[in-house]
Amino acid sequence: MWQERVRRIQNLMEERNLDLLFVVGRENLIYFVGTTQIECMALLIPKAGEPQAIVLWLDAAHVREKGMEVVPYYFPQETLVDKAVDCLKKAGYKAPRIGFEKYFVEFSVYEGLRKGFPAAEFINATELFYRVRSIKDEDEIEKIRKASQILCSGMEAAIKTIRPGISELEVLAEAEYTMLKAGSSGLPFRPQIVSGEKTLMSHPHSSNKVIQEGEVVVVHIGATYEGYCSKMCRTVALGDIPPEQERTYELLLQAQEAAIGKLRDGVTSEQVDAAAREVIAKAGFEKAFLTYIGYGVGLRQSEFYPIIGKGRKEVIQKKMVVDLLLPTIYKKGIGGPRITDTILVKDDGAEILTNYPRELIRI
């Protein structure tokens, strides 16, 4: 499995004229090595040939089971970066162009490589990783499908728990416990079971706030299975909510359905976005609506390829998995409700993997 994934990213490396990818981000290690049981590791992917896994000696046997060349290091007398520099020098590198992940490289690792190869060039290769991960194989799809099934059980638990006088965190506790029992490896992002005016914040999170009668409650949660994520958002009307907010939810649901209807192999991200944005614009709310309405889903809950939004040129391809449509109408007294689903792209359409009722939930 990892061999094909390495070959695919080696093809992309040619575009950036990279000699080497230095991989330390956990998500990318899971992707290329094929196990979640990894820490304190680096993967060296050359532009041609086989990768080397620099692994803490205690974990070497586990990684070798994946069929990959393993170079153990013995901490504390050896460090990961020192062993990596030694391997690269033995391979003959002198002034390599090294591709990095943007978000995951510790300064000590960068400093060690810079010291070992003062003439090296360090290139931001983040997009290459997201691009190669955007097309899922059957194993990945099944893991996301399983995560989605687990997530639906968590959503059901959350909905059953919501009532006046209970805190957002109490609802979250029931949802997370249910998902863990069903096989989730944990939450993939800071969950958003939020209520009242908090639903209009850009990135709210669950707190000790007590849920009140007459409030909108947004339940935006996720689950993971063997490293792969699924996410879903539903909206609950607790008692009588303002009719403007009910209409907002119906509007967002129509926009989501329009976007899903456009989603298929060969369309562009901006075409999918335009289908949703047309619904919002006709209702007069485009200026109160965000630029982006979806992201890839996989080893992260929000992968940065493709990004579905206004002006985005990415071509949607079959076997991509994306989410659609989280933004609300950002206008006080009207906005707050939200909806999103994890969706598999197919040749002639799309399959919603988070198979949970999508109408406004009334309690």
UniProtKB/TrEMBL annotation:
InterPro entries in alphabetical order: Creatin/AminoP/Spt16_N, Creatinase/aminopeptidase-like, Creatinase_N, Pept_M24, Peptidase_M24B
Q: Where's the Peptidase M24 domain?
A: 142-346
Classify the source by domain of life.
Bacteria
Annotated ranges, domain Creatinase N-terminal: 5-135
Protein name according to UniProt: Peptidase M24
Q: Which organism does this record belong to?
A: Calderihabitans maritimus
